[in-house]
Specification:
Elements: H1 3-35, E1 42-44, E2 49-56, H2 69-93, H3 98-120, E3 125-133, E4 136-137, H4 143-167
Antiparallel strand pairs: 1-2, 2-3, 3-4
Helix pairs in contact: 1-2, 1-3, 2-3, 3-4
């Protein structure tokens, strides 16, 4: 496969993964609006998962919800948007590792989902899932948050595995000359 074909494959993989993550996030948020907004919370599996409609004007666990408008605009919209654009361009044009492309594109796709929410909903992000057992619970989150978290955790584990392989001593299967 020549360089141009390889790059085309990376572009399609990047944009396809970003779009797929964004699309699932958008559809699930529309469903949350249609079926959860204004209704009582829904408990599943004895409260292991609770479906509830919430709007978050901050970031993770409402971080930044109380910031002034200018700081929120820069920190929660402009900076993430620039990072998503730069990351997408890098994955399409420079990254060679297909697994890294998919995992980073999952992070970017989730980021794009929440950015669109901020733009479409007066800076509020729609959240609708809560997981946990007893009092040990997550915050209320959405598919974009799951996409970002899963992509980042799997990328970290993949990079740690690669680093471990590179640091492992050379294989010494040759019998010694006794």
């Amino acid at each position: 496969m020549n360089v141009l074909q390889e790059r085309k494959k990376h572009i399609v993989l990047t944009l396809g993964t970003v779009f797929a993550n964004y699309a699932v996030d958008r559809v699930t948020k529309l469903a949350a609006c249609a079926f959860l907004k204004g209704r009582e919370d829904i408990s599943l599996l004895h409260n292991v998962m609770v479906l509830m409609y919430r709007e978050n004007s901050g970031a993770f666990l409402s971080l930044g919800a109380e910031w002034n408008a200018a700081l929120k605009y820069v920190a929660l919209l402009v900076a993430p948007l620039l990072l998503c654009i730069a990351g997408t361009v890098y994955l399409m044009l420079k990254e060679k590792n297909l697994q890294r492309i998919v995992l980073c594109a999952c992070v970017i796709g989730g980021g794009v989902g929440n950015l669109f929410d901020r733009l479409l909903n007066g800076f509020n992000v729609i959240d609708f899932m809560n997981f946990g057992i007893g009092r040990l619970r997550t915050g209320v989150l959405n598919f974009a948050d799951l996409s970002v978290t899963a992509g980042a955790v799997l990328l970290l584990l993949s990079e740690l595995r690669e680093t471990k392989k590179q640091l492992a001593p050379a294989n010494t299967d040759n019998p010694s000359d006794d």
